[in-house]
Amino acid sequence: MTHALIRSGFRWCLQICLPLALLGSSAVVHAQAAPTALRDDRGTEHRFATPPQRIVSLLPSLTESVWALGGGHRLVGVDRYSNWPPELAALPRLGGLDDAQIETIVTLKPDVVLASTSARSIDRLEALGFKVLRLKSETHADVRRTLVLLATLLGTPAEGDRVWQRIQRDIVAAAERVPPARRGQRVYFEIGGGPYAAGRSSFIGETLVLLGMDNIVPADLGPFPKLNPEFVVRAQPQLVMGVQREQAAMAARPGWQSIPAIAQNQRCGFETPRYEMLIRPGPRMGEAAGVLAECLATLAEAAKPARR
Amino acid sequence: MATKELILGGAKSGKSRTAESRAAAWLAADTAHRATLLATALAGDDEMAACIHRHQQDRTARVPALATLEVPRALAAALQAHSTPQHLLVVDCLTLWLTQCLLPPAGPGMDETAWQHEQQLLLGALQACPGPVVLVSNEIGLGVMPMSREARACVTALGRLHQQVAERCARVTLMVAGCALAVKGPT
User: Fold this and answer.
1) What is the ipTM metric for this complex?
2) From the list A28, A210, A212, which residue is nearest B31 (CB)?
């Protein structure tokens, strides 16, 4: 009885506070035994009588998410690009999103297949009657939603928010390590060998903003736009970030020597394993923010910082 | 300038938006400035979860550089850990923090002694913050006294907390229908 009263008091206070601007855990509360209904990012509803025990993931960020949520032992196969954590190295490799090995996936008898929204070859799996969850991962909000959805799928709904909170804490801690003189500098973050970039509206762009950095690619160009190389030259970024193996070629591109970041060697070239962590919208996003902050903190300042 | 401000108001009066605009102004003033929101809400049900989600999206759109940490209980420790002269903290909101201390969703709430201790920790941490802090809270003490004993206790405790926080803030603002009324300090 007392408890009921306390609950009613709590509810009363919640009602008062409902319209506040708050950010809280968005843990989905579901009874474990009850069937779970999940809507993927294409709007398709999937019903699971029990949490799936055999999971195929066709995207590294989703593989990493399942692992971080404690479902690693339920993965029965992953795509060829999933290379973290090393504990999953022995799992069958099932090709990529556009050349997924349908026959092999069928023999694995997965309860669910995790893929991106843009995976065309996956239609075949759905035609064969498999449940395919298609998930979008372009922004921080996407990552959070995906973590909560996957945690719910695994039958451990609270884990999603726990992993997300750790990412948030790591990003805030990373921001503390960015030298004040670096903040506000305009960054060009190149994807692969270019000319694609991580824009302001991508998850990488959102992390850069939280680290206090400016981005030469505005949000209205979309998360990962293909850029005209001249756009980068005109934008005159003060810092260039990207994969280490492209750095030499980048400086040799016509006109790029006039870019302050290149002329003054203000560049963060990341070795492939770290670069892969940076471009994956998954549970290591907080750690990735730490990698960015580390480069910003250790990169020697340009002789004459070209600040606006 | 380590200004502390308390922003009070009713539901949907513009408190959080005002707090966000303080963060945006702080970030725009100097590239070395940072801002983090300490969010105290817990999603107890679907409606609350939806409300929280809406606010997250609004905030990302309005002040993308405002980081968010969820701090349902350990508010004093979070203020201590993150406040620096270059780092503005927004606490949104004291109402829910108090609710979670006194009437938590699971388990027993704090007794009077524990609550007094918790309150003193918060007030001490607030006073010791080397950087600016903006605290948001609901002014729930204006109507008739609520029917239930728990609700009355909540109104009383929050009113007392507001008085003590306001005493330590150079600026107190009351939001009504999206308009700011300067209760204390500069407008």
Assistant:
1) 0.74
2) A212
